[in-house]
Write a structure and sequence with these properties.
mainly alpha, 115 residues
Length: 115
């Protein structure tokens, strides 16, 4: 009995990977073995990048809040402690946005936390 190989499925799989490699430079876009490795590595970077994005945004928000509170004579850690002790539940994203775009509202929140 002849050997059975599913060429339809393997060709579809290869075409899918080569389509994902579209836009890559050199033979990474059209040679199967190289493209497969490049696409796998790219997907690994994409996965870890989605996690790093969250960390980087949180660090950015903290830096912005810290800059806003330092102008008002307060440190970031002290400000966050005061917020939690007064049960003011605003997340860092909102606080950073207020510190950047609405200084008066941010100042009012800092004063409410200090009161």
């Amino acid at each position: 009995m002849p050997r059975s190989v599913n060429h339809v499925a393997s060709r579809r799989r290869r075409k899918k990977v080569l389509a994902q490699a579209k836009g890559y430079w050199g033979i990474r876009k059209n040679v199967w073995t190289v493209a497969k490795n490049a696409v796998e590595k790219g997907l690994q970077y994409a996965y870890s990048g989605r996690k790093q994005k969250k960390r980087q945004f949180r660090a950015l928000w903290i830096a912005r809040i810290n800059a806003g509170t330092r102008e008002l004579g307060l440190s970031y850690s002290r400000f966050m402690f005061l917020l939690s002790s007064k049960n003011i539940e605003l997340n860092r994203k909102v606080l950073a946005d207020l510190a950047m775009h609405d200084a008066e509202a941010f100042k009012a929140i800092v004063q409410a936390a200090q009161a």
